[in-house]
Amino acid sequence: MRLIPVILSGGSGTRLWPMSRAAYPKQLLRLTGPDTLLQQTVKRALRLEGSTSPIVVCNHEHRFMVAEQLLEVGISPLDTILEPIGRNTAPAIATAAFRCLEEDPEAIILVLPADHLLGDFRRFQAAIIVAMDAALKGDLVTFGIKPTSPETGYGYIKKGRVVSKNLYQIEKFVEKPDKRHAEDYLSSGDYFWNSGMFLFRADTYLAELERLQPEIFGWCDKAYKKAARDLDFLRLDSEAFDACPSDSIDYAVMEKTDKGVVVGLESSWNDIGSWDSLWNVTPKDSSNNVLKGDVIVEEVTNSLLIADKRLLAALGVHDLVVVETPDAVLVADRKRSQDIKKIVNYLKREGREEYLFHSKVYRPWGSYEGLVSGDRFQVKLIIVKPGAKLSVQMHHHRAEHWIIVKGTARIQKGDETILLTENQSTFIPLGTVHSLENPGKIPLELIEVQSGSYLGEDDIVRLEDIYGRKG
Hints:
Largest sheet: 6 strands, antiparallel
Radius of gyration: 24 Å
CATH topology of the largest domain: Spore Coat Polysaccharide Biosynthesis Protein SpsA, Chain A
CATH architecture of the largest domain: Alpha-Beta Complex
Shape: globular
Strand order of the largest sheet: 20-21-22-29-24-27
Number of helices: 11
Number of strands: 30
């Protein structure tokens, strides 16, 4: 019997826009320390007694960023499962459960969202021991956080009869309440915050999913059986997974099963679901402000101000969130930060890329950052990691001029291969097959000037790619 952590890293974190974007969501950000939320979660799981390396479930667009962040902290996952599209937690956990059964037919899986904070590890370990005993008896266990305030941003679990010390039957799940109901839940002592963490045998979960949600089970089974290896990743079958209904484990299984139990956990916990949540868990100055970056304040209280690239100055304001990034600035009432998803939805409806990308976009080979753009031209800073190589490609609508700023570049341009160093440059005419590689030991930095009738990222014809990308 093995305890296998399953890390769910498929969320988009829309309420933390503009720092969190669909292409670079909150679990990949360093919001509360030197480690990202994903790195903190994986490290926490590996501290548990008897834990194996984790299985990570993530969107296929995030795969290289997830892999690099795990490599940064010296962790090699048991596997990384790629979702072609988000289908919520019930299908994600099902595909991971199928993978766990290949490791151990009696595997117990610990499901952890990749973007939560948890304070008291000793109490967490004790709760895991209680949950393990219940899981061995065939229960599906969730973890309830003892509430410390009448939070309206969390779901709740009402505990039923006592099964054993700190273990209860689940009477019901409750959606995010209004303030009055949240105060009632807190004062009654009968409710936990719904943490979104679970522990159970993989085969027990799959059996209940098949009984309660046969359509979800069937499509997940098909998506897993038709999955294909892609470098270090397991890519679920796109057609089958796309057809799978989208549902959370709470709705699909836990609210319907007679095997559900909840373990109480008295620990600081936060899902970092809004800027107000981040303000709550971050150390503050004498005026109750959280200030990050180049920030100057006068007569400012109870606010969160983050500057990424520029000086941010505030005067005489209170209870605000102000977040500056290179391409967007958010100003919001701190207590309204749960509603920021409305802005993201608007950007998405209008087809604006600010909901999806930062001005700095990460790729498996490094990153590029838009510096300036105009009619028929744009300028980017490109950084290529040592030993990395961009795809062999060509463009139908643009030409490119590359100026090396730092490091060494090996460039294929048509039938010619050239080596350039600092302050040297080359021109890539429209339609020319080309590639860029960093053969050195330090990052390669270059300025790319694009010119042409169309400058979109979809004007890339990939002919060869060491990362298995197509298109």
